[in-house]
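Sequence and fold
=================
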Amino acid sequence: MPTLKDFIARAANTSAGWAVIARIWRLDDKLQRLVRFAERHRATQKTEDFYSQVRSKFQDSSVRHGPFKGLKYGALESSGSSLLPKLLGSYENELHPWLETAADRNYDLIVDIGCAEGYYAVGLARLFPSAQVLAYDTNPEAQKSCAQLARMNEVDARITLGSFCDPATLQSLDLSGKALIICDCEGYEADLFDAATAAHLARADVLIECHDLVGRPITRDLIAAFEATHKVSIVGTTPDHVKALELALPELTGEPYPVRLYMVEEQRRAPQNFLIFEALNPAG
């Protein structure tokens, strides 16, 4: 008789089944964040003072540091990830050196797959003021938040929102100009970037957050798909506690460790890889 694991294994090999599993995974992430939130409440006796102290540093609700400095968040919350690291500008700062070097590439098109509330879609629209941005997310609430963030930062005229992005969507793109594709889609990247898609993106730069922790060798497979047409760089994530201890930002200076951790915590389950694929023969 098939077991529950057998059922899950079969489901994981279908697009519809994987979509359901990914939703359950995100729900589990939310539950884990709630547990950590409760732990921090218990560990810090003066709870209200603790949180008001931290949030008072970000009353203007705009990004303080990094390539997206000045990005306005207003009263928006982050979708699927922590807000404070984004406001601080430490969020995924492992990518900042590359983003800074890429800032002079004058992309004509940016495609953000898994845009959430728009941190990258809107941030990149500000960083590349001539680029048109296609932002995809299957969560309708995330799409609404991204649209709101785009309006708040006056880049909404250059951002087009979409829902599901599949290989056919990517292969339909006009990539005659300079293009950057970025992706954070909870493991679906393993199916999205097949050999045909990688070939179509041969003249575009591609940045993918890999989710090997779902039990698939995604990093290995994507490198194999792109290595003939792109220069490949692997950037690993930094643990939250290391960022809390080592980041030299004014908002962190002199603060006790729990406050520093609260501000930089991205709450990843495990270390992850970012893959940066730079086109060997770029457009333009």
